[in-house]
Known about the structure:
Layout: H1 33-55, H2 60-80, H3 83-98, E1 101-102, E2 116-117, H4 137-155, H5 158-187, H6 197-214, H7 217-228, E3 230-231, E4 234-235, H8 237-240, E5 242-243, E6 251-252, H9 272-287, H10 294-307, H11 340-343, H12 350-357, H13 362-366, H14 370-385
Antiparallel strand pairs: 1-2, 3-4, 5-6
Helix pairs in contact: 1-2, 1-3, 1-14, 2-3, 2-4, 2-14, 4-5, 4-6, 6-7, 6-9, 9-10, 12-14
Amino acid sequence: xxxxxxxxxxxxxxxxxxxxPSQNYILDDLKTIQEFKIEFDRQWAIEELWYMSxxxxxxxxxxxCLGEGVDGLVSIFRATGDTKYLDDAISLVNNAIGEAVVxxxxxxxxxxxxxxxxxxxxxxxxxxxxxxxxxxxxxxxRFAQNVGHLLWVLYENPILRSSGYETDFAAIRDFMDVNFWxxxxxxxxxxxxxxxxxxxxxxxxxxxxxxxxxxxxxYTANVNNFNTTTVNGAGxxxxxxxxxxxxxxxxxxxxxxxxxxxxxxxTAISDHPHAGRAVKYMVNSKDLGRYWTSEDMTxxxxxxxxFWPTASTGTxxxxxxxxxxxxxxxxxxxxxxxxxxxxxxxxxxxxxxxRFETKDISYETANNVSAQFYGILALNSAILNGYIPYx
Length: 391
């Protein structure tokens, strides 16, 4: 004051920081969602016709691959909020459903009942052994796991559903509930609990989402059985996991539930492609806050370091989970591809995410999964940055 008396006071300033998703904030040196979107669009422009053809073939074996296209589209939709990707995913699924026929019309079917189904035709574009006119639950379960992801996203967003997707949501949900789950379990109640971890994980992956969507106890039971309960000699993934031979802080498991040698790879320990289906289930479970934990994700990330060490050249990835190539088949040669379950782990580890960003994708491109690869990386980026347009 003018009389030289000094007065002091204090105040509290509250800053509210909001994320503007259009700015694509960069986490450390990681690529942005927009960069992944550009890569996805470039690859999808190449792969779209291939997937559309698979969706309209009516061939059960094509479902084995078709789900990966659906999964990539759902992932990039969740990361960007752009409904053109959602529309494409729904189109692929609706096309496939539209090709389903009544089982009794298939002369070579083992069941010939009243369920809608797909014929496994002679020859296939998806590298799956043809069963020449029969029906193939493995191909359908691989497809179903990814359709479950699509249905869950729609279920969690009722406003989105009401904008024109409710009819598709209900029709796809009801079809899969009856003509996938009920169809196969009515034929053999043990179909979800077959001999391999890979085979069982697709069923558990579908059930994980359908339990939330429908609340049906049959899906809850399948999820619980896969996680911790032995059914028909199968299931109980928790008890089946072993410490990795090369790093006790990492995981490995045998491909078959009975720990027998899996002949095509000449060893009991799972190869990383087959293991990747179970990893996909575990990551989705962790994302949903269900059973698998952050500690499990850390162990799985450590597993990647075993069969794809950071110190390696980075262009090849050892086939067996413990980093060995001790099988009897040429399949045990190093491969440069990683199935989507392992790629999803990038959402829990920035260093691993950055490794995926620079990974050689020649294997993914050759197998028409490069768009899915970038869709998952985009979703990883959204999760790492804490902003996901759609859960």
